Amino acid sequence: MSDNTPRFEQPDPALYGPTKKGPIARFLNPVAGFGVTFSTIFRPTVTEEYPYKKVPTRPRYHGLHKLNRYADGLEKCIGCELCAWACPADAIYVEAGTNTPQAQFSPGERYGKVYQINYLRCIFCSYCIQACPTRALTMTNDYEITGPTREGMIYDKGELLVPLAEGMLNPPHPMAEGTTDADYYRGAVTGPTQAQIDWVAENRPDDPSLKTAQASDRQEADVAC
Ligand code: SF4
Ligand code: SF4
Predict the structure, then answer these.
(1) Pick the CATH number of 64-211 from 3.30.1050.10, 3.40.190.100, 3.40.50.1970, 3.30.70.3270
(2) pTM here?
(3) Which of 131, 189, 197, 212 is packed most tightly, with the most Cβ within 10 A?
(4) Which atom of ligand 1 is nearest to the CA of 123?
(5) Distances, alpha carbon 218 to alpha carbons 67, 71, 190, in Å
């Protein structure tokens, strides 16, 4: 009966055996570990002195998230939860609210009433950004994400929503007259209209954004054409 059991050959000791060193190499063995130290000791320091000196990130660095607005101040988030479903770390929590004529926060029927990102879970993969249908959610280069407690690392809508830019009108307020949510998505709305400003002045005369809101009538021309 023949023996068909596979046999493994012994490795060639010249290739896989211990390295043979000469007498000088053996003599230097105890200090060989300092070779890298001595070869770099006189090179310029490359340690970044954060937080005393902040070095800019790469342009496409994935940092803190932001919830964006349209040019008239309405929020881009429509509370669809697609970002939360796309998140592999289950770091996003969204609760949608219904827009009403007296409380319109975003174009269309719904807005993001509760929005939270748990930065103890987030791995900055940006899947949420890619899932967002309205470009409401984007990421900045900001890497200074801290919190005093575990709860403090859960950023809510107040921390994520961008402040009003110059000329914007604080929501809630109606959509620009004669527009649909599709006009907003196409970028046809370029600022608050006089009718929107008048509505806020009538319903919230103390709203601080009234002082700086600038009426824009460009969107009417854009939508009409
Ligand atoms: S960047 Fe990734 S892990 Fe962080 S919230 Fe978005 S989808 Fe989730
Ligand atoms: S951020 Fe975008 S994907 Fe997430 S709920 Fe808002 S609109 Fe939907």
Answers:
(1) 3.30.70.3270
(2) 0.79
(3) 189
(4) 3
(5) 25, 12, 7
